Structure to design on (258 residues):
């Protein structure tokens, strides 16, 4: 199988393991298009009989430092424009509709990620913040470097936790610790993540990708059946949480509160 490309996402097969890599260095901020590209890559590997496990990785300093809030600004050529007062109300309404549409599209594609049945391992370096934290929890296992940082910073932005975190995080680290992260915005390191059960193994930065591939090879052989059952149950729960068609960036899109 030749290497595949889905926008800023590449797929490379190494034996029976697919390396799915995000290419938006250095911090790999996501938007609706990137999540759609990831969903298409995951679904392609899920239906490929030669693929038995997936490694999710990112190029650059950070795994995924969160959402790209400058996407709309970039569409305007990188310049903030102040329209005349007579057009501001109409512009605001149009912007709200665009945000709702983009958010709905993002979560529809996030559900596609959670619906993938193949065992998945995430290799996490640097920041996994906000929605990037949620993306890390799509995987069944996480190999983390000591410099990894996990944070649910939504409370600092005044918005509801996104990307299914209120469903996935308590099931991994427990309600008490999840609540601590949600209500304070506290960030934890790679070492703390392993101690809390959020990370499964700690790896030096130069061994991160190698150790993730090694675990993925084990996931599709020695523990393939158990992993499939566990991931299917957890992911099917997250995948069955449908976003509201009228969701906005501040609404509880994944409706499973802690």
């Amino acid at each position: 199988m030749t290497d595949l490309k889905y926008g800023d996402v590449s797929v490379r097969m190494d034996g029976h393991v697919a390396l799915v890599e995000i290419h938006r260095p250095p911090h790999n901020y996501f938007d609706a298009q990137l999540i759609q590209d990831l969903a298409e890559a995951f679904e392609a590997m899920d239906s490929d009989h030669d693929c038995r496990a997936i490694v999710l990785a990112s190029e650059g300093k950070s795994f995924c430092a969160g959402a790209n809030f400058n996407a709309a600004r970039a569409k305007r050529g990188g310049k903030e424009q102040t329209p005349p007062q007579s057009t501001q109300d109409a512009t605001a309404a149009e912007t709200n509709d665009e945000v709702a549409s983009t958010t709905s599209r993002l979560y529809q594609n996030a559900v596609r990620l959670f619906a993938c049945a193949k065992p998945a391992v995430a290799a996490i370096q640097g920041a996994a913040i906000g929605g990037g934290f949620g993306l890390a929890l799509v995987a069944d296992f996480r190999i983390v470097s000591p410099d990894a940082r996990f944070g649910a910073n939504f409370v600092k932005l005044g918005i509801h936790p996104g990307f299914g975190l209120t469903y996935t995080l308590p099931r991994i680290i427990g309600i008490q610790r999840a609540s601590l992260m949600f209500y304070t915005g506290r960030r934890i390191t790679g070492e703390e993540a392993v101690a809390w059960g959020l990370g499964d193994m700690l790896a030096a930065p130069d061994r991160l990708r190698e150790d993730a591939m090694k675990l993925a090879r084990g996931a599709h052989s020695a523990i393939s059946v158990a992993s499939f059952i566990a991931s299917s149950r957890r992911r099917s729960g997250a995948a069955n949480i449908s976003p509201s068609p009228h969701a906005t960036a501040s609404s509880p899109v994944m409706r499973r509160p802690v």
Notes: The radius of gyration is 18 Å. Residues 78-83, 86-94, 242-258 have pLDDT under 50 and may be disordered. Residues 4-75+87-239 form a domain with the 2-enoyl-CoA Hydratase; Chain A, domain 1 fold (CATH 3.90.226.10).
